[in-house]
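Response to reviewer comment R2.3. The reviewers asked that we include at least one raw input/output pair. We reproduce the pair for DUF488 family protein here without editing.
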Amino acid sequence: MPVTIKRIYDEVCKDDGVRVLVDRLWPRGLAREKVKIDYWMKHVAPSTHLRKWFYHDPVKFCEFKERYIEELMNEKEKNSQLEELKNLVAENRNVTLIYSAKDQKHNQAVVLKEILERQKKTR
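Raw output as returned:
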């Protein structure tokens, strides 16, 4: 199964498989007890500085993607959680990356999905 992405506010489906929240901050307006999340990997999310700089501006997305990938490769905690995600995907489990951004095309989950799918194809 490919890696999928989904907003945390969308309905949970049995096909979601392992649900991984990839936001640094807990999503607004949601009680933790009511959200089905298997993992919260907040260290794999963009740094606060990068997140604030990007502010989900589609014009900045290409540069955001480059900076974010650089963070993932060069920061120990981020890289460690990225490896965990890669392992989940390698186990051929359904993995759904959960995010809270309104913009469904320009967010960190899109970048992570691309990275994970590339890695899966090379195995």
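The first strand starts at residue 4 and ends at 7. The mean pLDDT is 92. Further pairs are available on request from the corresponding author.
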